[in-house]
Every structure is written in C-alpha cells, then in structure tokens.
Amino acid sequence: MSEVRLGYFSPSPVLPRVITALAADGILLHAERVASSLAQFAALAAGEYDVVVTSPDNVLAYRFAARLGQPLDLRILLGIDRGLGLSLLARPEIRDPSQLIGRRVAVDVTHSGFALAMFGLLATAGIRRDEFDVVELGATPRRRSALLAGECDATMLNAGQDILAEEAGCNRLMRVVDRFEPYLGSVLATTTSWLDAHRGLARQLAAAWTEALRRTTDPRYRSETIDLITAEMGLSPTAANLFYRTLVNDREGLIPDGRIDTDAWATVLRLRLQYGSGASMGAETESATVLAAVTDREFPPNPTS
C-alpha cells in the first residue's frame, strides 16, 4: 500500500472523502493537524510531510522569501477554496475596526498567509500597521480558542472557526471577499522533488481531492455533507448548515474543479507585494509568471467524468 503524509490546519468535510477514496485505491493518507505554517513548511522541507493544505501566500513566502534559510522549490497541485468565510473576528466588546487601535491582533505568522489579508483589510479601514500590536499564535483553531479566552482582541478566522466564534458572541468586523475579491484561500501543495518522484501518486491524490470537492458541493449529497461537518468539526446543526452554505458559495466556497482563478491568484500576489516582503520576489512580480513558477501543467488533472 502506498502512503502519503499530509499536514493541514483546519478540519473539513472534504478530507474524510479524500481519505476514503484513496483507501479504495490502495493509498493510505496520513493526515496531521499542524501548529503553524512555519512548522508545516519546516516539516515539508524535512520530508516529514509529502503534501500540505495551506494558504497560497505561504507558497510564495517559502518559495521566494527563503523563510527557512533557503528557498523551497514548491508546486501547487490544485486550488481548494476561495477563503471559506475568511474574516476579521473580534471580541464581543469590539464592534468596529477603529476599536482595534492599540489592541492585540493575532496571526499565524506575521510575514505570510492570512496576516497579509488582515493588514490589507485594516488598511482599507484607515488603520496603519503600527497602530495595533501583532501576536503570533499559530493555526486557525488555536487562534479561535485564544480569541475566546481573551488572549487577543481580534484575529482572522475561516473554515467554520469563524462561525464558532460568532456563536460564542464574537463580532465579524470585516470579510475578505468584501474588500479583496476574487480571493484564493487554500491550495494543495508539495515540493518539486516529491512530485517528480511520485507523479503517478500525485495524480491519484489530486484526482481524489477534486472528486471530493465536487461531491461536497453537489446538492445531491447535502445531507451527507452536513453529517460530515457535524462529525468532523463539532458544529451545532445550525452552525453546520451555515458552514454548508459557505462551502457552496461561489464567492468564498470550495473550488469544485480545483482550478486556480487567475484573478484570485493576482489578488493574493498583490497583497504580498503591498503588505508582505514583496521585495524578496525580485523581478518576478507579474502574476502569470509567478503562477507558472509554482504550478505544473499536469495539475489539477482533467475531470474523470
């Protein structure tokens, strides 16, 4: 039996479908939750993971900015979602972005990922980067717990964690797709060395993933999907139905065919150039050129049906 090791952040109804489909083909997918994007890419570089579910900006950061000391040669296999409700959530007493001045705002890591979208959101509200304190608290579920515990005043949440925070009384201050649309929320990525050595396995993985994305967004399987949401994510029936609506939403839901929208990719790149270490990318700032540098023409695979 072949094995694939995956590092991911948040639970979803897609992953169990991928695991089941691969098992039927004799492939064992070991899926492990990660503490942070830094830990995720350190493990990927060390060969502890074969593939990761991550923000596309993390691919840019570790491919071009050499966050681990040297650039990682990375490839995106497919796009997974458009943000899944990615929003700035704040403590119950905070109802307006202006109240975050002088407050603690949590991110996974400061230099990449959803942090850049957050800096962009606050900038559109007229709030400068030096007007609030940034604390690094790791992956999305950890930040949601920190927000509820009062360890921070606001943070970026998505993938059902935003709904859990709202149920606990937190306020959704700003939604990414209201300011930066279209947006690309997460991708399935790997190293070029693993892809070159396991191209057939990668095709099977990507095909199983796109089929899981299609099934999850197919209204014929709505009841099954909501059951998976409840089982995998611990959401209440009301929250599970809300999250299902997010999953199938054209603006910020799943990407059924796994194909990356070039305008959404351009949004991610623009946020990096404006709010991240854009200088590290050198002359490679043209969106199509950068996308070509981190993708492979075989992926995502063509639909099987």
Automatic annotation (TrEMBL):
Main localization (coarse): periplasm
Any one cellular-component term (Gene Ontology): periplasmic space
Gene3D superfamilies the UniProt entry points to: Periplasmic binding protein-like II
Pfam entry (one): NMT1_2
Domain of life assignment: Bacteria
Keywords: Signal
Presence of the UniProt keyword Signal in the record: yes
Cellular location(s): Periplasm
Family: Belongs to the bacterial solute-binding protein SsuA/TauA family.
Protein's UniProt name: ABC-type nitrate/sulfonate/bicarbonate transport systems periplasmic components-like protein
